[in-house]
Fold this protein.
Amino acid sequence: MEKQITWSIRFIALFICSLSFLNAHAQKNTNVKGTVYDSNNEPLVGATVSVKGNLSNGTITNIDGQFNLNVQDLKSTLVVSFVGYQTQEVALQGRSEITIRLQEDAKALDEVVVVGYGTQKKKFLIGSVSQVGSKELMMAPQANLSNMMTGKLPGVTSVQRSGLPGNDQTSINIRGLGTFLDSSPLILVDGVERMLNTVNPNDVENISILKDAATASVYGLAAANGVILVTTKKGTEGKVTLSYDGSVTFQKNTAMPEMLNGPDYIYWYNKASELDGNGPYYGADIQTKVANNYDPEGKYGSTNWTKEVFKNYGFTHQHNISASGGNKNIRFFTSIGMLDQSGIIENVNYDRYNVRSNVEGNITKDLTFELNISGFYEEKNWPGISTSAQAEQNPIQQAVYAAPIIPIYYQGEYTAWIGPGSSTTQSPLATLRNSGFQKNQRHEFDGTMKVS
């Protein structure tokens, strides 16, 4: 009986080993090679070839359009793609050598791109042009158009140097830095040079970036650093349609340094004094007043200055109402929008109002006209002393360096002090609230008319 059991165990073990061998053999990769051609039987260099369902397993074709790819079995399906061509799925069906021909994507090549003072289909385009449409721009609400462009256009470098409402726009460079002075590109809105960040993003149909040196032949030296072409929306034939777009956003500091409270500040200040060979700088009576946050004389306390200066969040809301419609003889698009953006510190606010009306129509069978009218009003409100990092006495810097053992008020007024080794009086809340205010207002109204 024991002998029979032993043989049974051996047989089962042998059977399991056989299955493992067969499974390992089945999992062994098979090499597939092939060539990718276009519709004219020319090899495509750089076409992407990958396994369907496992896109991480892929390769690209070489200078002769050839590729080699390892697959688990010859029943897999390959996905072949190339810019300007239709993506194709090819079932191997047991083949280890295949030939693939891709067809041009006529839809992509017929897409119209704004270039210079006109438009052109992509298949006839020889210059370096990037374009982004309104759908991609409006995926995430932003206060201005330059921030919306960030990361959506290849070959464009965007840097945001400030988060101050009304001054948080992105500086844009095309083709790198072209000079030590000004590397800003030329910005044209509907063919006219204008400011980018005062345009209502909801009015934009598309943005084209002209990147190569050939743009100078159209626009002159002003285009030496590239051109940004903004095209606004136009009316379409059909019934009048009304639309509303709005957003509400909250902004806050993602990371703030945790400052010492009053008791901890005294402890480490005294510790430093002792390491220098001196006695404690702050005595026991002052330590007690700070720990209890109470001083009958009002000279000492425990204050978190960054919490007092910074709000929990900044609040922004924007709203836009537009109407469009028309018939075969006349078409229109009109809109009105507003933006209200508050900062994460007090007395910082930015408001902007935009209006636009675009009308186009047919005067005769061979003569058309186009009238674009737009305007904006903006108002920036800041404290009397600038919050810029380079500004002397800015309240943010004062709050960071303020001693946490000083109370907010002294005899009914904001506390001020002179720090060790300094001759300058510091008072972040007085600077923020009692230094007056800066109000910058700007408005502009412009229009263009074209008959062709």
Q: What stands out?
A: Residues 109-232 form a domain with the Ferric Hydroxamate Uptake Protein; Chain A, domain 1 fold (CATH 2.170.130.10). DSSP finds ten helices and 26 strands in the chain. Residues 1-27, 122-126 have pLDDT under 50 and may be disordered.
